[in-house]
Amino acid sequence: MRQKRAKAYRKLMSLYSMSFGFRQPYQVLVDSHMCKEATVHKIELVKQLGSVLQGTVKPLITQCSIQELYDQEKDHKFAVELAKTFERRRCNHRQPIPGDECLTSVVGDTNKHRYVIATQSPGLRQHLRAIPAVPIIHVNRSVTILEPVSDATLRAKALEEDKALHPTKPEAAKLTPTTSAATELPRKKKVPKGPNPLSMKKKKPKPEENVSAAKSEFPDPTAQVGEKRRWQDDDQEEGAMSTKEGSTHKRKRRRKHGGQSSSTGQDPVD
Ligand SMILES: [Zn+2]
């Protein structure tokens, strides 16, 4: 295959893969005419299919198509042999119908199973060009050819791309999370349960608590002694002797030593 053609086919197959999900091994439905053409012209069909599609291929033949060949087995023995090597595609036509009609029904309106069609029937090729995303292969003077992309395929591709750029309303809603619910929830203030503790009446203190409160009002005399001693120690260091006015003395001293003071404490006697 010439390099220019190879490049064109590679581009074609990448379009089918990217836009319509075609995957290797490519499923190629081969019709009875193609089987006859290949054997008459001694074409290695499976090899040619792989080279045109530039990947691995899985040739298939429908029940109706192989039946057509069986009917002409006397004249086309090798074609039958070739068709037998292909995987059978069940088309569920109880009474065999003409191959063209069978393939038309298998491809349907959308080619949802992503078949590549290899056919020598001009009528079938014409019909398949109207269905989007159907790669068509035929043989012309022993050269296997992949048809250029059809207008129907191009239109379907453009439609898909447009859909991707402009999503419909429900799709857009899926893409962008609902802002109202997401932002408003954290703002909601928590309402405390139960009555306001500030508006509640204070409980009357229990008798036990009264006792302890009384104790704190008149501290332990031993503690007072300890305090006294501490003051004494302080005063001794500083040379002051009065234990009675310990606290006043200290304040006074602090003021003297500390310089400025905003203390509102009791002024010592002058
Ligand atoms: Zn059929």
Task: Work out the strand percent.
Answer: 5-15%
Treating each run of at least 4 consecutive H or I residues as one helix, how many helices? Answer: 13
Report the helical percentage: 40-55%
User: What topology, given as strand order, has the largest sheet?
Assistant: 3-2-1-4-5-6
What number of structural domains do the residues give?
Answer: 2
Straight-line distance between termini: 122 Å
CATH fold title of the largest domain: Rossmann fold
What hetero molecules are bound to the protein chains? zinc ion
The residue ranges in which pLDDT falls below 50 over 5 or more consecutive positions are 180-185, 211-216, 223-252, 256-265
The CATH architecture of the largest domain can be given as 3-Layer(aba) Sandwich
CATH domain class of the largest domain: Alpha Beta
Radius of gyration: 50 Å
Give me the count of strands: 6
Helix/sheet category: alpha/beta
Major sheet characteristics: 6 strands, mixed
Shape: elongated
Following the backbone from N to C, one meets helices and strands in this order, namely HEHHEHHEHEHEEHHHHHH
- Looking at CATH, the homologous superfamily of the largest domain is 5'-nuclease
Instruction: State mean pLDDT (0 to 100 scale).
Output: 79
Family: Belongs to the UTP23/FCF1 family. UTP23 subfamily.
Biased composition (Basic residues): 249-258
Keywords: Nucleus, Ribosome biogenesis, rRNA processing
Domain UTP23 sensor motif region: 187-204
